Amino acid sequence: MTHEPESVWDYPRPPALRGTNEAVEVHFGGQIIARTDKPIQVLETSHPPTYYLPRTAFEPGVLKPVPGRTTCEFKGQASYFDVVVGEARASRAAWRYPEPTSGFADLLGHVALMPGLMDAIYVDGELVQAQDGDFYGGWITSKIKGPFKGAPGTLGW
Fold this sequence. Notes:
The protein starts with 5 loop residues before the first strand and ends in a 12-residue tail after the last strand. It has no helices and 15 strands. Strand 11 (120-123) and strand 12 (126-127) form a beta hairpin. It has strands spanning 6-7, 16-19, 24-28, 31-36, 40-43, 50-54, 63-72, 76-85, 88-96, 110-113, 120-123, 126-127, 129-130, 139-140, 144-145. The strands form four sheets. It has a seven-stranded antiparallel beta sheet, with no helix packed on it. A four-stranded antiparallel beta sheet has the order 4-3-11-12, with no helix packed on it. It is an all-beta fold.
């Protein structure tokens, strides 16, 4: 049974959280660095879902905290990680909300990744495409349809 892809234009603003049971597998540095079937999606108008994985889904030692924070008007202050496997390093490729706002408390203990900085990410066996741009961390699969914010000329959407 196939389903019509969700339109990201039907997602809310402010964003909403949705837990899923999709199987997620993250590859970096020639290894599988994270696996879970309990991701949380952040759904926001015009954006592909951003997936947050339980911190426990990651192999020990691959997330290296780095200085610096940013603020999301909805989720609070984010802190960052480099993703490191051997000599392979993706700078500031992962982030978390150590003290999320009350509406996003379920993100506590979860980490998001920039899919374009990983070797590959799979959701239910499907290769994830990265959202355009270097600011947003959306994951594009056949389960959603755009157009998506992030490409040149979409900043004002």
